[in-house]
Here is the input.
Amino acid sequence: MKTIKMKRGIRRGDPGRGFSLEILYPGLTFGEDDSGIGAIGRIDRARIHPGHTIAMHPHRDDEILTYVRVGSMLHKDTVGHREEIRPARLMMMNAGHTFQHEETILGSEPQEALQIFLRPRAPSLDPRVQFHDFGEAESRDAWRLLAAPEGAPFEVRTQAWVHDTRLTAGTTLALPNIPAHAPVRLLYAFFGEARIGGLTLQTGEGAFLAETSVEARSDTDLVLIATDSSASVFKGGMFSGNVLVHA
Here is the structure.
């Protein structure tokens, strides 16, 4: 695969009323019949003002990493959790067959976050929620493993790996090794500007990578999502599933 920018997403919400969302379907970049690629089903970038509540709503057969960069929120769910999520304390929802949750934005500044919807290896798995306090909000100039099938703070029930870093301007960083037979790497610039080969990524842009390193043009928050495109995944998840297939 050559390095190619990911197609920009679909904008939803009402910024004037405190809620805006960009929905990214990575598979649409390639014009195929799948809105996702491998285990990467969908990515939502949200900006939500304090006091806003996203009411209790369901998920099914989604593995969801809530990646907060600014602000905080209160998470409540139907398996009994009531937890604050913030940049140094993240959450993985392994929705499985039955799961609902709600989110209320706390504090005095708008929350800026990603929800990364991964596809499970099979449907109807047991629901659970994981929380992890990373101690620091940022990993400076080094990749930090957030989620993986094993050996990471968050376990995902699929062949996917999520890393992040805060890369200092002028720094070049090699990509981490991915233990996949047919790896696909998607690099997303949360804030800042980075250079990969002949491409420049700015805030909110992503690219599928052929190159093995990235250079920061400014201090840049990067999220790297990788998958094994040869692994089996369930494409019928409520949010991570293939939206191009209709019953």
The mean pLDDT is 95. The CA atoms of residues 191 and 203 lie 5 Å apart. The two ends are 31 Å apart (CA to CA).
